Each structure stands twice: as C-alpha cells, then as structure tokens.
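Quick question, first post here. What does this chain look like in 3D?
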Amino acid sequence: VDAAVGMGLRNVSVAGVARSMGIPAATVYTYVSGRDDLERAVADRLLDGVIADVNDTDDPVEVAVGWGLSLYGVAMAHPGLAEYYLSHAWPSLLVFEERFGAALVEAGFVPAAAVLLTDAVVSTAMGEVITRQAEDLGEDREFEDSFGLDRPVHAAGLPIAWSAPESDRFAWRLRWAVVGMVDAIRREVVPFSGVA
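> Answer (accepted):
Ran it through. Tokens below.
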C-alpha cells in the first residue's frame, strides 16, 4: 500500500506498484483483487491520516473546522482522494465519518445535528479540493458545496485578504459557514435541538 500511496490515487495501478517494487504483478494480486481494491486500500490509508487536533477544545465550531481543515489538507496533498471520496462508498469512509460525528457529539451536538454538520463540512472540504486541483490543472471547474457558499469575501464579518494563500481563504470560508450552521442549529432554523 505504501508504494501505491506514493504513486497517488489518480495514477495507481497494479502494474505500476509491481514495477516500483520490482516484483511480478501476480504477487501484488495476492494482496489485492485489482485496481479497485488497490484504490480502496490507498484511500483507507489516506483517511486514517486525517486527525483533527481538537482535543483541547469543546467549542463545536472549532471541532468542526479542525476536522474540515485536516481533511482538506490530506486531500490537497493527495490528488484524486476528493473525487474518490465523493464517488465511492466503502467501510473506511463510514468509519471516518463516525469518528468526525463522534467528535461533534462530544462537543455538544445531538447525533442528528452532528450528521448534518459532518456531511456539510466533508462535502465543502472535498468540493474545495476538487476546485483547487482543477484550477491547478488549468480546468474550469466549480463545485457547489453543501453550504451553498459562493466564495464570500467576508468571514464572520472580517475581510479576507485575497493575497492570502488559498488554504487560509478556505479556512475562513469554512469557519464562516460552520458558525452560520451552528447558529442555525441553535436557533432551530435547522430542525434539530442540537448544540448546548
């Protein structure tokens, strides 16, 4: 799997892994059934690397933003992960979303609100990754995230410096959206009685 991770999710192949390790492809097939299985193993390994450093806070906004930024960072570092994540359902994906949702419940959300916020943060982070990576390839792609954000120039009332790196601008947009959603949950605009 390490050799496959090094190739990148977009470029991974059984033959490529075999070549990089100097072994016959038949040997690789003793561990994986084919490209799909190999892609899933790479995606599993990458998702295991998403760890939000939010242990010192019980602020639900910081917990959600921390998980979203960690996911964004891992997906930006591994082209193809965002597309794979959004187009496949597999057990490790569910485990990741359960870890994220459990962190939100621990921060004070009721489970239904945690599921809603998990889905919104994940799709927003992955949508941003797809957009950034498409721009890097010279493609014209825009991904509408779950929050329906159209690249706001202000986050929580603070102007964003457009000279800031994309990751900083995304962090502000994500924080702004999470603050709005948490506020909506608290005011029960979203039909959950969900944040302490």
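The chain is about 60% helix and 0% strand.
Confidence is low (pLDDT under 50) at residues 143-164.
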